[in-house]
Amino acid sequence: MTRWLTDKELDAWLKLAGVMLKLGPTLDSQLQRDSDLTHFDYLCLAMLSEAEDHTRRMSDLAATTNASLSRLSHVISKLEKKGWVQRRPCPDSRRVTLVTLTDEGWEVLRKAAPGHVATVHSLVFEDLSPEDVAALERVAGHIVERIDAAGDLDSRC
């Protein structure tokens, strides 16, 4: 028997679906207009910038950006062609690939960051209380954990 959403769950779901459908394209639009980046490009560069020596394992970067290795590999290839990142084998294990933010990539990120952060603040955090921000982090974290625990739904077919 199907367990249907309650009226409150449906209201919350429709609002969350609206966020999922609208936020990504809005962030992409701002970043493409101002910096010739997609939001995912920016996220990859930003997560590399926060790592020691601006370097991460591909698998770690995939986990940090909530991306599949396949999607990440495609985007890293594109960023590598632009000279913004470099890939190399890990000296400790041939099975591990490292990716490093280049100086040129750092400069692209540095220029893109103020506009992106202003957009995120305006769309997501403006007028939220610290309690709202904590609740958003808790709820979003819960959802991501549930998705991760469920695994790739396509592999179940």
Task: Summarize the model shown.
This is MarR family transcriptional regulator. With 157 residues, this protein is mainly alpha-helical.
Can you put this structure into words, describing what you see?
This protein has 157 residues and is mainly alpha-helical. It has a domain at 32-125: Winged helix-like DNA-binding domain superfamily/Winged helix DNA-binding domain (Arc Repressor Mutant, subunit A, Orthogonal Bundle), CATH 1.10.10. The protein has six helices and three strands; from the N terminus they run H-H-E-H-H-E-E-H-H. It has a three-stranded antiparallel beta sheet. Helix 1 (7-35) runs antiparallel to helix 5 (103-125) and helix 2 crosses helix 5 (103-125). The longest helix has 29 residues, at 7-35. It is globular, with a radius of gyration of 18 Å.
- What percentage of the residues does DSSP assign to strands (E)? 5-15%
- Strand order of the biggest β-sheet: 1-3-2
Mean pLDDT: 93
Which CATH-level-2 architecture of the domain at 32-125? Orthogonal Bundle
- The structure class reads mainly alpha
Cα-to-Cα separation, first versus last residue: 21 Å
Rg to the nearest angstrom? 18 Å
Task: Give the topology string: H per helix, E per strand.
Answer: HHEHHEEHH
CATH class designation of the domain at 32-125: Mainly Alpha
* Approximate helicity band: 55-70%
How many helices? The count is: 6
Number of strands: 3
Uncertain segments are: none
Give the CATH topology of the domain at 32-125. Arc Repressor Mutant, subunit A
What sort of overall outline do the alpha carbons produce when their principal axes are compared? globular
